[in-house]
Amino acid sequence: MASLQSLAELTVFLDYAHWHLVPSLEKPVLQEAGLGLSILAVVWLLWADTILVEHFDHGLDNRELITHGPFRVVRHPRYAGLLSLKAGFALTFASVLGWLTLAVAVALVRRRIQLEENHLRGVFGQTYESYVRRTARILPGFY
Questions:
Q1: For 88-142, how does the pLDDT look when each residue is reduced to its tens digit (9 = 90+)?
Q2: What's the domain range around 85?
Q3: Residues 6+ apart with CB under 8 A from 119
Q4: 27-79 pLDDT, tens per residue?
Q5: Angle at which helices 77-92 and 96-124 pack, to 10 degrees?
Q6: Contacts of 63 (CB under 8 A, 6+ apart)
Q7: What is the number of domains present in the chain?
Q8: Is 139 a domain residue?
Q9: 71 lies in a domain?
């Protein structure tokens, strides 16, 4: 599925460079905002990955719930970063195909989050439930 998603993302470049399927999306202000969002998403992902590396550097037997760094803001900071990066990509390249790949990614991520959260409830029990009550999944105040 990831290969199909990557292939679909390549069509965004064709849309931007040649097809211009929806020319009204080509607005410099939106494209610059998309570039800014992409940069912020990469910084956010690096922060999340740094916290994960530090956590798992102690081995896989470390069964402590991560609740600091970006995990203090959202329960799934990597997914938040990846989806933000895809939104930035769609804006930057002014592509309706970029928005379609984002929609597919949201659907896939929602399913994956459901599976992961079921697992985390099983591993951490009430500690995870408490974390869920005080922390958004991906977007604070929304989801």
A1: 999 999 999 999 999 999 999 999 999 999 999 999 999 999 999 999 999 987 7
A2: 2-15+26-56+66-134
A3: none
A4: 999 999 999 999 999 999 999 999 999 988 877 776 789 999 999 999 999 99
A5: 180
A6: 123, 124
A7: 1
A8: no
A9: yes
